Amino acid sequence: MWGLGNISGDSAACRDAILNSGGLEPLADLVENSDDEKIIKHGTWALSNLTRGKPAPEFSKVYRAIPVLEKVLMELKDEDALVDAAWALSHLSDGAKERIDIVLQTDIGPALKRLLEYKLKNNVHDLSF
User: Fold this and answer.
1) Three-state secondary structure readout of 22-91
2) Does the pTM exceed 0.90?
3) Please, is 73 exposed, middle or buried when counting C-beta atoms within 10 Å of its C-beta (0-12, 13-18, 19+)?
4) pLDDT tens string 49-83
5) pLDDT for 14-43, tens place per residue?
6) Which residue would you say has higher pLDDT here, 112 or 83?
7) Residue ranges of the domains in the chain?
8) pLDDT tier for residue 129 given thresholds of 50, 70 and 90
9) From CA 62, how far away is CA 57, in angstroms rounded?
10) The domain at 2-121 falls in which architecture?
């Protein structure tokens, strides 16, 4: 996970090489099916790196991350993981209206609502995204 996150964060070309080789799918599966908070936290960071950058990654290659990010936002309390998940959703919905529409059609709203409620309830001021 660290390797994928570091490599994908280096450049859009490195990120795209990972995405083109199918690297997001096993990472998403691992995070989605794990109960280990460290795996979820580090995997969410790696997913965030795989979804960011200019030019934006091909949406069909990063769409699989959305249900994983939703799980993180609904279940975790780790602030680093919550921030990374929120950033990843921001990256996924950045750009064309079609990208935003697809993200919203996934019913991510309740997860985002939970994030805002968590921030208010815990008086967290550093969940900046």
Assistant:
1) CCHHHHHHHHHHCCCHHHHHHHHHHHHHHHCCCCCCCHHHHCCHHHHHHHHHHHCCCHHHHHHHHHHHHH
2) no
3) buried
4) 999 999 999 999 999 999 999 888 888 778 888 88
5) 999 999 999 999 999 999 999 999 999 999
6) 83
7) 2-121
8) very low
9) 7
10) Alpha Horseshoe (1.25)
Q: Which whole-number Å values give the CA distances from 23 to 16, 61, 123, in the listed order?
A: 10, 10, 37
Written as one letter, the residue type at 74 is M
Please enumerate in sequence order all residues whose Cβ is within 8 A of that of 111, keeping only pairs 6 or more positions apart, or say none. 69, 70, 73, 74
Beta-carbon contacts of 50 under 8 Å, excluding residues fewer than 6 positions away, are 4, 5, 8, 15, 18, 19, 23, 24, 27, 57, 62, 65
Alpha carbon distances (Å) from 85 to 13, 21, 94: 22, 23, 14
